[in-house]
Amino acid sequence: MRHISLTLLLTLLLTGFGLTACENLGTTPPAEVQHAVTETVIRKSPNDDRRYAVLTLPNQLQAVLVSDPSVEVTAVSMGVGVGSYQDPAAHPGLAHYLEHMLFLGTEKYPEPNSFQKFVDQNAGIWNAFTAADHTNYFFQLNADKIDQALDYFSDYFKKPTFDPQYSNKERNAVHSEWSSGRSQDNWIMYRLNGITANPEHPAAQFNVGNLETLTDKPDSRLQDALLAFYDRYYSANNMKLTIVGRQSLDELKALTEKHFASIPNKNIQPPVVTTPGITPAQMGKTIHYQSLKDTKQLLVEFPITDNSDQWRLKPNEFINNLITSEEDGTLGEVLRRDGLANAVYGYVVPDNYGPDGFLRVIVEMTDKGMKQRDKIVASVFAYIDLIKQQGVEERYFKELKAMREKDFASQAKAQPVQQAIELSRQQFDYPVEHLLDANYVFERFDETAIRQVLEQLQPQRSRIWYVSKTEKADQTIPFYEGRYAIRATTAAEFARWEKLGETMQFKLPPENQLFSDATAEIVAAVYDHPTLIMEQPGAEVWLMHAQHYREDKAMLDLNLNVNFALDSARNIVLASLLNDVFALQTTTLRDRAGRAGLDITIDLTPEKSQMIRITGYSSQQPSLFTNLIDHFAQLKINEQDFSQVLDRYRLERINARKAAPTQQLFKHMWRLLYVANWTDEELLAAANQLTRADLVAYHRRVLQENLLRGYAFGNLTEETVKAIAGYAVEQFNSQRLPQERFMLPMITPNPQVAINFREAIDQTDNALLSGVIGTEKSVEQHAQLMLLNSVFSNEFFTQLRTNEQMGYTVGSAPINVDDYPMFVLYVQSTNTELPAIKDRMDRFRQAFFTQLQALDEATLEQMKQAEIAQLTQKPTDFTSEAREHLYDFKFGHLDFARKEKLVAALSKTTKADILQTYETLLLQQQGMPVLIQLKGTHFINSAFVKKP
């Protein structure tokens, strides 16, 4: 669907797409609502002040209720225990299509998108996704409006209309969604995973749907199949609800009973997949995928029997913890040291297919690794053999258990919508008592359980995946681009890998020296606002202590601010390469710290200066910073590391053209808003001219011409922060004055000059972004555009996407460009030429003014309060509190008052202000026009728009 951040949605999609079969045993009318509900105790972190309750309504719908008076929103998630694995053979993608159709009205609220409009006007988000074994519908909005929102939302599960007049529109929407992913390697490999699995398993079937599969068939009308699917699987006893809000548990119970007790219970048997996904016939295979991006990846996949019922024992986590270690002598460290891999990681999904799943080891190969793939495969097998021989020791379990127990003891509260979605999913998998701690329970060391998994990690059972642009492949992939080949792995290959492995020397990881189960003393909260504690030639450092989450955690962000990184494409590339070499050489330390609860971030600031940030337990941070500071100051850049990071940088630039069109739109938009706006082609050309000596010289210059900028938050004393910063100043030879700090330069909007970019892209769809930037800095106008978008976005989406099916991705957004207000409209389309998209945007913009004039004051006040409530809400955890002022620090807003200014601007915004801004900025275009056009391969002979 839409209306949620890309990061969160990708996270949700990565949790799976998996399930099959069920029977309808009749319908039971809802019983009389009973208000006496027995609470079930959910085991929670001592750091969690939320209150939890579980209730099962008379219709057998299970609900988890979470009360948190500190939040200003309420989030709701409904999980339904049916997904793409239940798609009928006649209509692949039906579960996904139903998810789309459900949102298009009910008997009580027949207007399409009326619920979404209500959520949008209350500073909310909403979306849905279809996985393999479940479908999830969720939203979040201002807490004061939850009763009305639930009345809308719950009706989808009582009396949806599934109005046939919208069938073609939603078929097109699903088709567009499929089209946008058919040339993306991650979606193609997901499909390939099913194609190469057991042909009798539902994973072998196409799961997204398109116009070809979602149509009437000789023996099955689509509308009939849709209604039958809903009637068969959408039953109260197959649903899991979660509500997270500021209301009390009693209030949440009353709301749940009021709105969800009348959902029909059909007493269905929840569907279960019993067909194995990988049988012996699919084992011992080698799969070659000819990727669309320039990728160099090797996967070693081991089929395993589902052992999810052993979640208390954690055998999979035990094994994966050893496989993915980056300590000296381990698999990942050796492959990186030998220049064969950029990264090595792994994961386990024991129930990916239902009764079985897999353990995967993934190697991101270098050019050198591509030439020695046999050595990499042999290394994986040899290292796993070492684990079998020497790794099944209780000491590893005890350390992992201690780490997870400490993590749980200090576990941060999740954002409401994230927790709602997660708990709805978890309800299908775990006893309700363990919904929060299931991932942290390590009941006992069970050697038998661990060895049962290890016994399945046999070379002859493995599936080896070679993924690169140069793979020889001759088979097409139904419904997707790309080609593949599959063959039996030969006895000669197994023998070769075994012989290579006999000569390999690996080591298992030692005890983690950074981990301690002790808790540091909590320092006095001296500074309640970012305070300049160090200002001298070479350094400026701010410190703030936590006001809400005073715990044994800290965040310290150190930047080596330079003023030359953006001077040329050459310097931008050098800054990236320097950062990558530093990150590469500190992989072992960062991995060790991460396992001990300390996140080390090595990255570039917006102005391409080097940044080192540590977030986590405070006691180890001074010694870690000393290590990292010394390493960067004394960085040794060898030819192998230089070649490795240069190759990776080139691939990133080349593969940027393979990103989804909407992603490319916004990447170009932000690039063109910067003064330094080199293209990927220009950066690639610069990269091709560089040598190791150039990078060594750039590193030397960074150490000669930097200003140390620091921002500290949390459980650190002023003396500790000064000591770390002082040591950094000395080692980095920091000398520039604080007033010489260099911030990312953005363009100054000029109404006489337009941003007008056009490009043909290597994707099928068209994409267009049209916008305008105000010519005066104005927090007030940005606030007005935020409120405008609360009413504009849904109407724009409903008209162009739902009603006209111009594109699957349709949206609008207010954007702050260094305090210059900007408003953009964007569309990605499979069926419309660029001039037609632009013309429709312009006509909608003109017509909407009449609708905006009819906006009533009560609705405006409701929108204002909703936006203000979210801005002023207490942070949900330490990390969100720590990062509250980080944006201001990074962009030089050193009064640290951005949020307060925006709240003040929202408070005083009037309807007249919004109308005036709309008229001058969006209608009269009294600003700097922005037009970005990306022409897809399906429209190669069509025209671009001539001017903004």
Describe this structure in words.
- The protein is α+β, with helices and mostly antiparallel strands.
- It has 31 helices and 24 strands.
- It starts with 5 loop residues before the first helix and ends in a 13-residue tail after the last strand.
- Overall geometry: globular
Spatial gap, N to C terminus: 29 Å
Please estimate the helix content.
25-40%
Q: Assembly state here?
A: single chain
**In what range is the share of β-strand residues?**
15-25%
The side-by-side strand order for the widest beta sheet comes to: 9-10-8-11-7-13-12
Structural class by secondary-structure content: alpha+beta
The average pLDDT score comes to 93
Instruction: Compute the number of strand runs.
Output: 24
Largest sheet: 7 strands, mixed
Unreliable stretches covering 5 or more consecutive residues: 1-37
